[in-house]
Structures
1.
Amino acid sequence: MVKKGGLFIFLSIVLIGISFITFTSPDEVETLLEVPVSSPLVFEVPIPNQIWATNTNHTNALNLNNHFTNYMGTNTTFNVTEVENITILIDEEGFVSFYPDLNFEGIREVVFHAQAAGIVGLYNASSNFVQLEVLLDEESPKWSNPQKSRTDIFQSDFIRFYTNWTDNLALDSFLFSINQGSGWVNGSRVYFSGVSNFSKQTIQISAPGGTGVSWAFYAWDTSGNINRTSIQTFTVEITETPTEPGPGEEVIIDPEEIISEFSVTPGIIELKMKQGEEITRFLRIQNEGRESSNFKIVLNGLEEFLVLDKTEVTIPGRTSQTITLDFKVGERTFPDLYFGYIDIIGDSKTRRVPIILEINPLEIDFEVGVQVKNKDKRVLPGKEVEIEIRITNLGDYARENGTFYYAIKDVYGKTLDFSQEEFELKDEEFFIRTLKIPTDTLKGYYIVYVRGNLEKETSIATDNFEVGARFDVAGFIKLNFILILIILISLITALLIIRSRRNRERLKILNLYLKVNELKELINQKQLDKAIEYYIKIKSEYGEPVSEKILDNKEKLKEEMQRLADSFDKKNSGLKEISKEVEDNDKEKKEGEEIEEKNLEKKGSIKREIVKEKMNKEENIKDEHLMNKKENGEELKEEKENKIEEEVVKKRDGLNENKKSQNKIKNQKLKKSLNKPKKRGNETKKNSLKTDKPKTKKK
């Protein structure tokens, strides 16, 4: 019976076990297998001993979560045994900081504890014994293996400098310093840690070819001990810099085959940033052609600060596409002026967009500024650029000596002229200085760069201006000869037209004046009917017909004619001088005609006497001849008289023709004298006459 009951119990336990295994989820089984039987909170990684210098806080020295493991996933709390002379703080995230007493030097031991809630209650775990040693540190960091990223260095190259560092306790920070021929310039202080680490700094070389450059690193440990590498040197290589295109200009790849046209905006990018800052800008590529084109976007020189969202695009004809430019400056970036450019390469040409990046420290206690003072910020080659430099004390600096460096650079970083001076930092100082533009400088966009240096700080500032080419008169005339010729011909033609119109107006006014005088004479002679006819004729010629009502009232018409004559005399009194000139011309003409007539009459009488004398001689001869020939006497006499009469008629006709031709010449001379321009006073009176001309009335 007992055996049967034991067997039954055994089978029941087996069945329950099978059912438990069958109805338990795989996740639950796995969890049960992973949980240790003893405790879900375990101390797994030993904590190393801590060593640091006297009078130095050892903050965030370690994280206890890296040494204790809570498999339950519940909240874990930490604590530590208290020791003398060292205060130990543990924050909510498990980071531990040590704060020794002033001037304390010695060794202490501590144990860290962890606690977490479990299924059956609280679980605890403890660390190993950790030795805390506070030493008097008088040993500076040690350096080794200083090097640079390239051997051959040219102007505008980006170079990275390295140095390895070790310390007996802990490294704290480093600083990079460089002299590119214009004095030593210090970068910002950069923090690092550990007993072994390396310092690095990347800058763009601004010194021109042939310049000797010096550089060095400084490093501090947590005790404040400092060390510096030996001065490292190199020389910037000399190279023939190719002529760079200006902002937005095109570099022709194949000048014989230009397939597509495109434009890029902006033509130049200028940015002012601070350490740790991020800025986004955009570049727009416009395909001006009708066909779709492929474009490559290539960055040169600013890879450490700039990221392009595209390096190749296809743009349909007559459309555009935008490229995103993300600028990011690291907190350790050396404050300076950096240069680079973007090439947009099309099917047959390349457009280059220069980039000028001004990087200042995140926080500074003094500031420099610069402004170009030349008019319109334009300077000719060979002339001087006048600049105003401002240095302002923003902090609590006492009077401290520093240096400021100022230079002219093109958009690719090439230095045209520079200088350097010392200054004493006060509240605010202003300096007026000049730099010279070389005579062979190409026209375009240029930068004035100023950098101020104190012992541990640097501040920079920039301004821009344009260099304009000298005006070439001979070249301008040569290039625009046809245009200049057309303008001259147009001016001469316009002057001739104006003169011709003035002469026509003058003749028109003179004719009107003479007609009005004739009208006055008719009125004075009381020839009213003729005056009315003449008045109607004048009005009709000038497009002002007389109304029928006025024609019916002759007295009123007479008054109107007299009023017209009087008003014309008042408004055009200056025409009397012109009329006088005309009368004088007529008088001269008549006198000339009379003289000519007298001369002709005199010549005619002389000719007549000569003819008569000849006729008498001929008559005498013929009479004698006739006397000899009596049989033909009467017939010969008649024949002689007829011939003489014919000769006299011919001579008289010739004299008349000669007189007519002379009169014709005189008339032509008179017309030319009337067409000549008169004095300015006469022209003024003529214009007043033109202005006061009666308005046209339409029927």
2.
Amino acid sequence: MQVPFYRHGLSAADAAAVAGVLDTPFLTTGALTRQVEAQLAAFFDAPHALLTNSWTNGAVATLLALGVGPGDEVIVPAMTFIATANAAELVGARPVFADVDPDTLLMTPQTLRPKVTARTAAVIPVHLYGRLCDVAALVRCLEDAPRRVAVIEDAAHAFEATRDGHPPGRVSDAAIFSFYATKNVTCGEGGAIVTHNPELAARLAMTRLHGMSAGAADRHAGARYRHWDMTVLGTKANLPDLLAALLPRQIETIRDRLPMRQALAARYRDALAARADLRLPAMPPGCTSAWHLFAVDVGGHRRDRVLAALGQAGIGCTVSYRSVPTLTYYRTRYGFTPDDHPVSRDWGDGTISLPFFPGLTEDQQGYVSACLIETLDRIREPAVGGGAIAAIDSPSALHKADPMTPTIDQLYRYPVKGLSADPLDTVALAADQGMPEDRRFAITHGGSEFDPLAPRWLPRRNFVVVARTERLAALDTGYDADTQTLVIRRNGRPVARGSLTTVTGRAVIEQFLAAYLARDVPGVPKIVEAPGVMFSDSPDKLVSVINLASVGDLERVTKAPVHPLRFRGNVYLSNLPAWQETRWVGATLAIGAVRLVVVDPIERCAATAVDPVTGARDLNIPKALQQGFDHCLFGVFARVAVGGRISRGDPVTVTPAPSSSCGG
């Protein structure tokens, strides 16, 4: 079953409304935008509403209208989408991150108060996942601030939400909404600002449109042309009528759709309630959530393995969100460490958002819940009481604390060199062969020396690989060894499917890759294979082995999470001391009847700099290895000396290499 993360509910009637705009004089902001703004003002019981082309530009326009800029500080929660903090950066202010409440994940007076200084000009509380902060309490908290502090609600998730019966924007300076593609009300890209302050509304009318005193429709509203002036600096944040046309019907029916979201949330909660190894954010008192997202914390160490497993099952999931101060830009610009905002860090390391939209069927939702539970049972990580996941911040924290026998934690193969891993529960190894189906196929580019008439092993420069083309890592793939069928998914949705051993099947995959990689690789990508050849970085047929404890210790140097799949290994071992594998050359690993003989350490290249989930080139792993350990080696290659079946959970016995002696 395929379950997308999101599917919009727009209809032919919405398309007709957009088409109707084509018969009017203005495609940009005009009469229709004004009508929708009046509709929004009535919905939120506010005197002023202004449409914008995004939440981000709406926030920038609002900060400009409030006079926030260089030298000012804007307090935002650490647990949010990057746009909240970026808006402050874009006007020249400094974002100051407040941690969030450990139960609700919302900003509270307790988390806000320590961050207020004489430089604080604004606070942007976030109504995360659709649950409203207690904005009135935050406003009261700021009454004793050294200066007047504006409160701007990030209501991107909370269009139909209420707290104590009131919608966003009631007691703050402004509330800003998003109409992005996945939002409860959407026009693809867009947003709105709601305010009860007429002076702010007047300034916003200018700062959302370059600072101009009159827009295009206003200049041509009467019989005579109206000249415009620019008295303040603004941005380009206005929404065109062409997109505004999608909004009226959705606004009219949004409250009718809320019970559907509430029912979806209740089904997920019921299905997952018995799991002591999951954590759900608490609902604040008096809050009616908009239920924009359904997020769960599965635990930082296993989050990416859960994402990979659900992706392999055809389930679209995402991460909402990583703690903003842990991201490279903010970490390097302001020197944040993971311990600065521990609640946001822990949730950001462990969160996944499950498929959630009104059209989601009970069968689809049941499939998602069942797959998540099966995945959690298979990973089998320890939990603590009270419904909270055990605090495991890194692989090293898990594996150093457990003195048990070395064990196979994970098994992977990479059917297509450069594409994502295929997880396995068990595999049969043969002597002097690598992992079955591992690197069986590769992708050539226009400069490749590969000759399909005389196929042979070639070094990586002849193929499209993550080291040079990080966009490959953003693709999630699944492989059926029985039919040699590859499925490529992007953002959780299948985009290409074909058998790699048929001309037609390869053509389908190649057509997608040609479009996806058009600006990244020379020539036309081609799927190739060479019978009896593994397209690994070694011409020998070897198995790569990774020690998870070493991954954890590497995080001590990077000061950031390191996904184990950056190293594209076949066998991942747990319950070992960090870096023990560096002494294994010549050693034998016994796994039941199977014998692996370690032959070489693995020198790491730029491919490890790429996050295997996001496709972002965000960590310089070779540099971190060199700085922290005086080498660029990570993991080992092993030759299968005696074949047989190995499985996840199998114990491993390490026999050191025989010591040599010499006499004279």
